[in-house]
Each structure stands twice: as structure tokens, then as C-alpha cells.
Specification:
By secondary structure, this protein is of the alpha+beta class. The protein has a single domain, classed as Immunoglobulin-like (Sandwich), CATH 2.60.40. Helices cover 16% and strands 24% of the residues. The protein contains 2 helices and 4 strands. The protein has helices at 9-14, 45-49; strands at 17-21, 28-30, 37-39, 59-63. It is elongated. The mean pLDDT is 78. InterPro entries: Cadherin_N.
Length: 67
């Protein structure tokens, strides 16, 4: 996420970041030391996507303050 925002990791820590997943389960989080998007919950494809050919999980990264 830090790389995608073109921010040094130290600068990224200055902003409050939130990860919003679509749905009830929070599958992703932001690792504070590396700036990587990480999984916090195991994803059961059959439960999440049922019989869909392609399974896509969408999330939004919200950054507080100016970037």
C-alpha cells in the first residue's frame, strides 16, 4: 500500500489508514511496520463466492489527511 501511494513507510505511519471490506468479515488489514496489505481471516472460497467462476474480494483503503 505504501508503494502504491508512493509514500515512504515513515510518512505512511503519520496518516491514519483504514481497510474497508465489502461484507461482514474483515479479511484484510494493513501491517504497520511494512505497509503491506495482509490477510487477517482465512478465506473460504466456497462460502464467499459460492459457485461463481471468478472470485473477487474488494476492499478500500481510506487515508486520513493529505497525501
Amino acid at each position: 500500500v505504501a508503494k502504491d501511494l508512493a509514500l515512504p513507510l515513515a510518512k505512511l505511519r503519520e496518516h491514519e489508514l483504514s481497510i474497508l471490506d465489502k461484507g461482514r468479515t474483515q479479511y484484510f488489514s494493513l501491517h504497520g511496520k511494512t505497509g503491506h496489505l495482509v490477510m487477517v481471516e482465512r478465506i473460504d472460497r466456497e462460502q464467499v463466492c459460492e459457485s461463481a467462476q471468478q472470485c473477487v474480494l474488494r476492499c478500500e483503503v481510506i487515508v486520513e489527511g493529505e497525501v
